[in-house]
Design a protein that fits this description.
- The protein is built from seven helices and two strands, in the order βααβααααα.
- The protein is mainly alpha-helical and about 170 residues long.
- It has two domains: about 80 residues, Rna Polymerase Sigma Factor, Chain: A (Orthogonal Bundle); about 60 residues, Arc Repressor Mutant, subunit A.
- The protein has a two-stranded antiparallel sheet.
- Helix 1 packs antiparallel against helix 2.
- It is elongated, with a radius of gyration of 34 Å.
Length: about 170
């Protein structure tokens, strides 16, 4: 068997002439049209990666043999990964937020925003500085020129008001 250099354009021509046959062949092996297309492209890329081929007397056979080996690897991989997966549990719930949960959360947000809007100005300002700007009690006290105790009291007052509005929106 002689080893001969093969040109990329020869491989491209070989692949184009046999592409449909390769895809059909792979489809019979892997039973998935997308996988068959992907494996046919992989076959082409494998041949392009070769600088020389020892099978110059039967390049078509070499093309199909490469495709077959790739299909075997594909099937083995999926059999191994399939053995590791478990069947779906009938009790599984969708991890995404359901519409009714979203509606409840949206309503709670509206109540919370209304509660914050109804706070006295300084109390609201302290709450926002603490929860949104994440300032410490000391930083808030310095910024507003008030004592840390006042910051604490106003913050507790604001949080109790918001909590009560979430429990009873008529509050």
């Amino acid at each position: 068997m002689s080893v001969i250099a093969i040109q990329h354009d020869q491989i491209a021509e070989l692949f184009l002439n046999h592409k449909e046959a390769i895809v059909d062949f792979l489809m019979q092996k892997v039973k998935c049209p997308d996988a068959a297309q992907d494996l046919s492209q992989e076959t082409y890329l494998r041949l392009l990666g070769k600088d020389s081929l020892a099978h110059t007397d039967n390049l078509t056979g070499y093309l199909f043999r490469t495709a077959e080996r790739l299909s075997i690897d594909f099937i083995r991989h999926h059999q191994r990964s399939g053995a590791k997966t478990q069947g779906l549990d009938d009790e599984l719930t969708c991890p995404l937020m359901q519409p009714e949960d979203f509606a409840i959360l949206s309503q709670q947000c509206e109540h919370l925003l209304l509660a914050i809007a109804n706070l006295p100005r300084q109390c609201r300002h302290i709450l926002l500085l603490r929860k949104i700007d994440e300032l410490t009690y000391t930083q808030i006290a310095e910024q507003l020129s008030i004592s840390e105790k006042t910051v604490q009291r106003q913050l507790v007052k604001a949080m109790l008001h918001c909590h009560q509005m979430l429990i009873d929106p008529q509050y």
